[in-house]
């Protein structure tokens, strides 16, 4: 194995250096992941004092619940809008028909 000097001037094996780089890369990935999770938490409709203290699993559960709720509300609104539109169409048709007679 190839030997390298570390910061203290001591020799390190290349496999040790590879492990160190791997640990650093993993630490960096975890840091970025944590940043994304907390950014997601602050997009939830919760007070900052609550969203800033959630763990990753809670952030995911609340986000999924929020998205499902929003989807259901959107579908419900679409149904009500269609029903209202149909009702208005019938009322307008009845009104127009009554004008012709």
- The total number of structural domains is 2
The largest β sheet comes out as:
2 strands, antiparallel
CA radius of gyration is 30 Å
Q: Give the integer mean of the pLDDT values.
A: 82
Number of helices: 3
Q: Determine the structural class based on helices, strands and strand pairing.
A: mainly alpha
Number of E strands? 2
Question: Can you tell me the overall shape?
Answer: rod-shaped
What's this model, at a glance?
The protein is mainly alpha-helical. 76% of the residues lie in helices and 6% in strands.
Give a written overview of the molecule.
It is built from three helices and two strands. Strands 1-2 form a two-stranded antiparallel ribbon. Strand 1 and strand 2 form a beta hairpin. The chain starts with a strand and ends with a helix. With about 100 residues, it is mainly alpha-helical. It folds into two domains: about 1-40; about 55-100.
